[in-house]
Amino acid sequence: MDWYTTLVIMHIVGTVLGVGGATFVEVHLVRALRDGVMSPEESAIMQTTYTVLRVGFFLLVLSGFGFLILSRLSEYTVWFYSITFWIKLSIVGVIAVNAILIQLRWIPILWGSAIALVSWYAALIIGVLLRGSVDQPLWIPVIYVAAIIIVYFVMREVHSRYTKPHFPH
Asked: Average model confidence (pLDDT) for the chain?
């Protein structure tokens, strides 16, 4: 198996773990807070889910750097000039910064969750559907920001309907 194939597999696995992890963080969070308190078992499930999410992000970033190095070594640098590429790279940056802000508790959890969930799905969708360059890619950030806002309000409604108020320690 060549390096390119290895990187593609790593990138796909990282994306799958990231998208799945981000999805299950939300599912487990709503489930854990139904009674307004997170039990030790529920906390352990959340920690495991976050670990899966972090492994996915690590694989995504590692394979992404691998693609950059491989492209540079093969002197195939055309896509460095693609706006779509820079949008995808920016979304990965948003995932990283958002994770830090959530960890430091500098962002409300629902906003951080909405950003994480939309960012992971955006990375997946853009990676699959927009493999090449797009003629007019400026609609991508507009849809991305709109999706974050919509997902935030949907998640706020889900939390208000299915969870009791909780007071973090």
From this structure: 89
Domain count, the chain: 1
What pTM value is reported for the model? 0.89
Within a domain: residue 106?
A: yes
Residue 143 structure tokens: 């849809």
Q: Is residue 103 within 8 Å of residue 96, measured between CB atoms?
A: no
Domain span including residue 102: 3-162
Q: What percent of the chain has pLDDT over 70?
A: 93
In a domain, 48, yes or no: yes
Residue of 112, 105, 97, 119 whose CA lies nearest to 15: 119
DSSP 62-106: HHHHHHHHHHHHTT--GGGG-HHHHHHHHHHHHHHHHHHHHHTT-
Name the CA dihedral angle for 153, 145, 31, 160, rounded to a multiple of 10 degrees: -10
Each residue's pLDDT tens digit, 31-65: 888 888 889 999 999 999 999 999 999 999 999 99
Residue 143 lies in a domain: yes
Measured distance CA(86)–CA(88) in Å, rounded: 5
Residue 84 lies in a domain: yes
